[in-house]
Amino acid sequence: MLDVVFMAMSHMLCALSGIERQMESAREAAIAGGAVWDDVEAAAVRERVRALDEVLVNLSICEGTLSGAHMLLSHAKHAPELVDNDDGPAGAPAGQDRPTWG
Question: I want to staple 77 with a disulfide (CB 3.0 to 4.6 A). Which of 2, 9, 56, 98 is the partner?
């Protein structure tokens, strides 16, 4: 089940990245159009650019949060492999003496 969630998060990260690129392109196009400095349409274009800036900030925060959760899920997904492997259990729980070999 963790694999399914991990893959879903991977796809969401890719989608967020694509959306972010589209919003950046829309912002650049609005500025490149020159209407930001034109008195007739300047207010509307500046408002559009401000809204796109807000969208980009929020997308960036979402992407950062999801990336962190994705990394933590990766650790959780691989933790059981570290506990039980071919060499036996990982060792005694913290605070307990480990056996001495030799």
Answer: 2
Tokens read off for 10: 């991977």
In degrees and rounded to multiples of 5, residue 85 shows phi and psi of -135, -170
Do 16 and 31 meet the contact criterion of CB atoms below 8 Å apart?
no
Which of 83-97 are b and which e, b meaning 16 or more Cβ less than 10 Å from the residue's Cβ? eeeeeeeeeeeeeee
pLDDT tens-place string over residues 49-81: 999 999 999 999 999 999 999 999 998 888 777
Please give the Cα distance from 29 to 55 (Å, whole number): 15
Alpha helix positions (H), 33-102 = 42-83
Q: Which residue has the tokens 């492997």?
A: 85
pTM tops 0.70: no
Report which DSSP code applies to 84.
Answer: E
Phi/psi region, residue 50 (left: phi>0; alpha: psi -120 to 50; beta: rest), is: alpha
